[in-house]
Amino acid sequence: MASVPGTGEGTGEGTGDGTGEGTRAVRAGLPEPRKHEPTLPGPVFAAHYHLPGEPTGPYTYGRDENPTWTLLERAIGELEAPGADAAETVVFASGMAAISSVLFSQLAAGDAVVLPADGYQALPLVAEQLTAYGIEVRTAPTGGDAQLSALDGAKLLWLETPSNPGLDVCDVRRLVAAAHEAGALVAVDNTLATPLGQRPLALGADFSVASDTKGLTGHGDVLLGHVTTADAALAAGVRRWRKIVGAIPGPMEAWLAHRSLATLHLRVDRQCANALALAEALAERDDVTGLRYPGLPGDPSHRVAAAQMRRFGSVVSFVLADRERAERFLDALRLVDDATSFGGVRSTAERRGRWGGDAVPAGFVRFSVGAEDPDDLVADVLRALDAAAGPH
Ligand SMILES: *Cc1c(COP(=O)(O)O)cnc(C)c1O
């Protein structure tokens, strides 16, 4: 386990305030205990609040603030930026709402932004909209820190590391140093890693942004997103965007997300260990090519990933001979659902090329590793690979 920092004992490492990550996750954002009150107060359903006299906050109207969001924002902030009391978190109705809030609140006509060429599927749609608003969009791949070459005169650098679905990794500290030197802000899409895998603000980024639909909530039943930043002015811009667009999470979703955080540490430890076990088993197969998992010591991303990540995520990707072979494999799996998305406790996999849009081979499989018993999972995958290869 020496090559997987932070997954074994000593989970207090690097947490800064003397508590371990598991301890922090189970208590994150909870209010002070009060007699006869629940540990985690239930969702507050309110379009408006009693507000006699001067309309002062914190709670005036339901699109601006909600006490259930407040607790969740505090909780995520404690994981994204432990000990940094000035960091602010703003939660959104989805990951795309969070991403859009940063891009559209920070960029104006005439600005340039550098996006990853191999990032989340919806980024090209966003790029089209940014271009329509007179913003110059430059793209470069995540691997090899190629976005460095596009920074001149840019206002914002957008990183996604590890990238989805290719699992390339860039050196966040190096890109942040170059971007800040060039006068650009840096946002990191931290969806795949979760704050227990990687803390972008500690690596120097100005924004940590995520789709919490994935590993952070981890049950495949909630859409949610968040932005964390330690800069009050940047946070105000993001908050203003949420108010304008109204991309707000429902109180029930926010409460479910907060409830899910209590098991985040358990889930990611189990899922990352399972992902490594699966990747190691796949590495032995000669019907599998293009295997990627940043936690595998031989992976092209491993060295950079190990220098900035504490856990390597729950996604493994690989390529089977062709579309038909990949489809037979997915059909033959019994413990793994054929579904998109990732980060949930139940394993899912899909042939990514079915969507179009990602530059991946027809037999490319994105595998999201769940919390099953590793032996069961690996056995199911090996059996399905054999079935897909056999006579048909
Ligand atoms: C899923 C995903 C998003 C979008 O999140 P939604 O919650 O579906 O809006 C953004 N970035 C990455 C890396 C993702 O995987």
From TrEMBL:
Region of interest (Disordered), residue spans: 1-26
What are its GO biological-process terms?
cysteine biosynthetic process via cystathionine; transsulfuration
Q: Which cofactor does it need?
A: pyridoxal 5'-phosphate
Q: What Enzyme Commission number(s) appear in the record?
A: 4.4.1.1
**Keywords assigned by UniProt?**
Lyase, Pyridoxal phosphate
User: Which Pfam families does the annotation name?
Assistant: Cys_Met_Meta_PP
Looking at its record, which EC class is this enzyme?
lyase
Ranges of Gly residues composition bias in the record:
7-21
The protein depicted here goes by the name: Cystathionine gamma-lyase
Q: Which organism is it from?
A: Streptomyces kanasensis
Species classification: Bacteria, Bacillati, Actinomycetota, Actinomycetes, Kitasatosporales
